[in-house]
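Structure tokens please, single chain.
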Amino acid sequence: MSNILKAFINILNNNQVSITNVTQDNNRANNMCEGLETYIKDSFADTTNETNEQIKLEKIARIYSYQGNKNNPPDLILRDSDAIEVKKLESKNSAIALNSSYPKAKLYANSPMITNACRSCEEWTIKDMLYAVGYVNQSDLKSLWLVYGDCFCADKETYERIKNTISSGITTIPDVEFTDTKELGKVKKVDPLGITDLRIRGMWHIDNPNKTFNYIYTYDDTKDFQLICLMKKEKYDSLPSEDKEAIENLENDKVEVKDIRIKNPNNPVQLIDAKLLIFKV
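Here you go.
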């Protein structure tokens, strides 16, 4: 079973920061995003340098129970472990576009936003949500945040209250026909001929971790690459002892392991014990 600590060490050891340009279509942004997803997938599976495709596929099948698509979160699920959502940025400070999916502290199996394949990939009800936020300049990965949703996303009720209030309000519009949808709303037969429909979608954004966590980490413009991992201390403590020992015994002056306190996403005047891992080259 893989985890964030194994991925941290794999990235450190491989020191590979070039994102492969996947050329499945003509959309460069999509291609680079797929390249980042492949980088993340290989980092957790330790398959970055595996050249035998069959061996690589078999290892990935052991490590992951699910791989998603562009329209349904998450992008990956580690078997018996975390869900991973990959987000590519072309600016170090730009906000993260979540589109119709609101920020998630956790991923729930009963969420209407996930596919049946995701829901049935293994026996589960709730998973920790790990955001992999990469800043890519040209084809080079300049920074990567691996940060858990419960470090910066509020509980789901906060977002669902807004979403449900908007959806309920839309249905009060008189003399139009509505249909069931996973989006905020869908209006049928808007015009007298009944030939026009209206889809009402949410477009969620959340601040870049460089901005959200500027009180614990400052982006270093002098470095070619920086990896920042952030998790609650209780999450760190729950990880395998051998992986924690491997992190804490690293003899590398480019690595920092810190005990810190971060703002509670549900009540910012409260502070939460957390762990911060940094690698800069």
